[in-house]
Amino acid sequence: MAERDIRDITIVGAGPTGLFGAFYAGMRGASCRLIDALPELGGQLTALYPEKYIYDVGGFPRILAKDLVKGLAQQALQFKADVRLAQEVVGMRRAADDGGLPLFALATPEGDYLSRTIVLAGGIGAFSPRRLPLDDYDAWLGRGMYDKVIDPKAFAGQRVLLVGGGDSAFDWAVNLQGVASSVLMIHRREGFRAHQATIDQVRRLCAEGKMELRTFWEVKAIHGDDRVAAATIRNNKTKEEERVEIDALIPLLGFVSNLGDIANWGLRLEKEEVVVNQLMETNLEGIYAAGDIVTYPGKLKLIATGFGEVAIAVNNAVHHLNPAAKLFPGHSSNMEGLFATTG
Ligand SMILES: Cc1cc2nc3c(=O)[nH]c(=O)nc-3n(C[C@H](O)[C@H](O)[C@H](O)COP(=O)(O)OP(=O)(O)OC[C@H]3O[C@@H](n4cnc5c(N)ncnc54)[C@H](O)[C@@H]3O)c2cc1C
Fold this sequence. Notes:
Layout: E1 7-12, H1 16-27, E2 32-35, H2 44-47, E3 53-54, E4 63-64, H3 65-77, E5 82-84, E6 91-98, E7 101-108, E8 111-120, E9 126-129, H4 137-140, E10 159-163, H5 167-175, E11 182-187, H6 196-207, E12 212-215, E13 217-223, E14 230-235, E15 241-245, E16 248-251, E17 255-258, E18 269-270, E19 273-275, E20 287-289, E21 294-295, H7 303-321
Parallel strand pairs: 1-2, 1-8, 2-5, 8-20, 10-11, 10-16, 11-12, 19-21
Antiparallel strand pairs: 3-4, 6-7, 7-8, 9-17, 13-14, 14-15, 18-19
The structure holds flavin-adenine dinucleotide.
Flavin-adenine dinucleotide binds at residues 12-18, 35-38, 43-45, 48-49, 52, 54, 56, 88-89, 121-127, 260, 262, 291-292, 301-304, 306.
């Protein structure tokens, strides 16, 4: 199958480090595949703080996280890396010898991807949506309860109960206006982690009677036959309980992350972080790592350091694949014509 073709470099993680690594792989003429467990590019920037400004990335006095991701994606994908989103890498094995070099098979729920080298840019691990603490949580997923909103039109005319106090919950409270027939939003405490402008927007909508926002309320139970039909919500201060009739329950509680299977690969780890040397090599030949996932003396978990580390990782991977290739990539400013963004 074409999509299963062997790549020179497979980058696990499409956060800022992985995206910049894909750019570097392209600049070095290496074929590249990017795999991420999330449905979108950008890692922590997209999942945790898309609307926050970043002030410490070179060249940008300040930039919104989502705009940095947009630029990184444009830069990274000009060399046509094969991008596989919503696919967690759940296993790694040596597949076969390929001209004397090790060949890796990376397992995902969609099948195996073959690669000559691996660059781990998995950050703080694969993200998955934080769950409501209910025993029957799994039973309701997809049956009126959704831990992400892909198409708001799916909630047309529905009575929606939104749970959460971060950017996703607030953004969807706004974006479901005029789509859902009613929106009740609850959060277990008073403080919110969302962008102030969106909080203000939601407060205005509440004042206009277009939705309701309640703090200190949590979901206690979900009711229904085949699908969600109601929920019991509980005020954690007053202990008051109320049954609300709903068509959809959308918990948007942020994400939890976990190194997952990568912890079982035989990599040298320190406190769930992958130990690398100054070439960004791990203890396993052909596997490199960069970004938040790595540790070494003096490591700083910053976007800027991830960029530098992944450039080193990719250049060493290229050199490993072809020892005749120069380690130093040359200066991009001397490579006009190579880049889609030129001119
Ligand atoms: C609220 C907040 C604000 C921040 N502000 C700043 C700032 O101002 N400046 C700054 O420099 N840094 C900031 N940071 C830190 C910065 O976001 C991280 O240093 C950066 O995201 C690390 O990038 P990364 O690509 O290494 O990892 P990540 O961004 O964590 O991306 C890793 C990706 O790998 C994927 N992944 C992991 N395991 C697997 C697997 N097994 N299979 C498939 N995919 C996998 C994950 O889904 C994720 O998308 C902030 C962090 C937070 C939480």
